[in-house]
Amino acid sequence: MTNMRYLFEPQSIAVIGASYDTAKIGYKVLENIVLSSYLHKVYPINPRGGEILGLQVFKTLEDINEPIDLAFIVIPAKLVFDAVKRCAEKGVKIALIITSGFSEVGNI
């Protein structure tokens, strides 16, 4: 059974699909974490790297050398399976998927 502490009191959060575009969900999720005064580690992930909202952006999950308790996966549906696999390999405790393109578009 998963310890729910990792969901409700994570010590580190990764946002896979963090975006530079303020209109995209990948930006909004990261912005909400930052504005919530979350006090622990936040790791935006975007292949471009750089900086978003004052946070260093990592190009891949594997570039982070710290354990991750919670990952928000905010990428297109076709990329989700690989992201979940990478989370499992990294030892991420909980992954929340925010995407579209699965069953809401018809039969799978």
Architecture overview:
Helix content is 27%, strand content 20%. By secondary structure, the protein is α/β, with parallel strands linked by helices. The strands form two sheets. Strands 2-1-5-6 form a four-stranded parallel beta sheet, sandwiched between helices. Strands 3-4 form a two-stranded antiparallel sheet. The relative contact order is 0.21. It is globular, with a radius of gyration of 14 Å. It has helices spanning 5-8, 25-35, 77-90, and strands at residues 12-16, 41-45, 51-52, 55-56, 70-73, 94-97. The chain has one domain (5-101): NAD(P)-binding Rossmann-like Domain (Rossmann fold, 3-Layer(aba) Sandwich). It contains three helices and six strands, in the order αβαββββαβ. It starts with a helix and ends in an 11-residue tail after the last strand.
Observed structural traits:
alpha/beta; Rossmann fold; two-stranded antiparallel sheet; 4-stranded parallel beta sheet; 108 residues
Major β-sheet annotation: 4 strands, parallel
Shape annotation: globular
Strand content: 15-25%
At the fold tier of CATH, the topology name is Rossmann fold
The neighbouring-strand order within the major sheet is 2-1-5-6
Give a nutshell description of this structure.
The chain has about 110 residues and is of the alpha/beta class.
Helix and strand topology:
Blueprint: H1 5-8, E1 12-16, H2 25-35, E2 41-45, E3 51-52, E4 55-56, E5 70-73, H3 77-90, E6 94-97
Parallel strand pairs: 1-2, 1-5, 5-6
Antiparallel strand pairs: 3-4
